[in-house]
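TEACHING EXERCISE
Course module: macromolecular assemblies
Task: Read the component lines below, then compare them to the predicted structure of the full complex.
Student: A.B.
Group: 4
Components provided:
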Amino acid sequence: MFANRSRLNKYPLLPFFVAALLLTVIASGCTKRGSQDGKPRIALVMKSLANEFFKTMEEGARGHHAEHKDLYNLKVVGIRNEEDVAQQVDLIETIIAQGTDAIVIAPADSEALIPVCKKAMAAGIVVINIDNKLDRARLEREGIQIPFVGPDNRKGAKLAGDYLAAKLKAGDEVAIIEGVPNAFNGIQRKAGFQDAIAAAGLNLVSSQSGNWETAKAAECVSAIATEYPGLKAVLCANDSMALGAVDALKTAGRTDTVYIVGFDNIEAVQKLVKNGKVLCTVDQHGDQLAVYGIEYALDILNTKAAPADKETPVDLVTAETLK
Amino acid sequence: MNNSHRRIPAWLTDYLGMAGALGLLLLIFGLSTENFFSAATFGTIANQIPDTTIMAVGMTWVLIIAGIDLSVGSVMALSGAVLGVALARFGIPLPVAVVACLLVGLLCGLASGLIVVAWSLPSFIVTLGMMEIARGATYLVTQSRTLYVSDRLEMITDTTLLGLSAPFLLAVLIVLVAQFVLSMTVFGRHMVAVGTNETAARLSGIAVRRVRLAVFAVSGLLCGVAALINTARYQANPNNGIGMELQVIAAVVIGGTSLMGGRGSVVSTFFGVLIIKVLGTGLAQTGAQEPTKRLVTGCVIIAAVVLDYYRRRLRKTGTEAAQ
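Instructor-supplied answer key:
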């Protein structure tokens, strides 16, 4: 013990660690004092607040909080990039240290966030999973249960795929533009598209990742359209990529022969759905997703009910529904 | 005399080397896909490179003066965001919005340049700061939402001359002018001198600070120009251009411009951009998955700079033999 201490003293950075520790203690002291009003404290841990989808989700949550200020205290934190797992883990550790009653989390990764969520639960915090579903098998192995409150992305994608399939005939060539390879919701959407493609007997000629990005998707769609002159449709796992597909097909002069399907129902795409440049998209009611999670967290805190998954609605958006 | 005779073929071999590498890539993809050698492929490539090319021109100049500009992707996004908001939210007339877009780019470049010059700071860290500032400002300006503006900017993407799009022609023009300034004007010689040996340049009476400031300002302005094209195609998306700085730097370095300053060519940069784009399009056309794409792209970048090393050594021994 003493030997250890003297060895530690040799580290020139030690004063910084002490300072950092002090800061943490002071910081956590402050928040603890600030929240002694008896209301439950809920921390909403988001992915990138720079992303329109999460921004909408956050605004929905803030709106809900503004209307129910007497029910709970809300703290919203987000990470810089959608894939910055490390930063999200750090955020949750800080929240645990500062103390909270519930964490509603949109995990940046469906496995990597499980250990820190487990840590939070061990500290007596109610953890609710929204948006990106945590890996079931891994949760079981860790011996914990974290309820998922959110839409069935696969079902949503199937809805869009079925709507498209009704406009095509068996054997028609279609392509999928996937999300970031490890994202669970992206994988689910791809699976949903594939379900619809299989059911209608369409011919899936290519499936590539557009990394959720417009420019990247445009590059992929251009290349696929060139390689497959008979291409009839492109199914994109989000609307940003659908925007890239719109551009690519316009450049190729094939706007009229290739259908585009999106997902998320962002504002910029609604215009294109209305004028027929995008066939359909899927609304998973982004503004309500965090609210559902918060409401469920409050529910569990109040009733001490056993947590279970809750499915939220997904709806198909077409030119007719937007009228 | 002998020396200058040698220099002309050396320039030629430079370009031939790049053209050879490009030809090799084209051949590989031509053989491995069905429709790579088609007007559609080359039309697409010509349509998708202008924004990267224009930013790479600015980056070439910056690298030649031994600087680096990490802010280009963010500055482009910010310029595009201002353009998008001006058009879509405030309905400002197009010419005014375009001027605002260019001004934003120019001001960002000027700001970086002024700070670098005023405190003699490394441009790496200053432009890293600017990268964050511009991205943050982009999220603020757009409120993290994608703005649909293609319908107002169709004249940018749809204008064609002899079958080539206006953005492509503009990019080629900028490449030629930038190469002319670099190799034929006093300012160009000054840039090379500053990049080769700043102290020597100062002692020989070159206004080193003014040269550096001007180069960063030009880089910023070119980001504004690139933003016009990028936004017209991909909408004002706050996440546009993330990671683009690295793509641009890679293209410039593949073109043989030295990261250490004092050596570079804008025309070679254009080849660098082409190589990266042909690679991206070709891989997408073969239907390669994301991991393969990244692995191959990384290998090509490294192979290109290793080749460049040998080419330079050959040229050096050739020059020495001549003397």
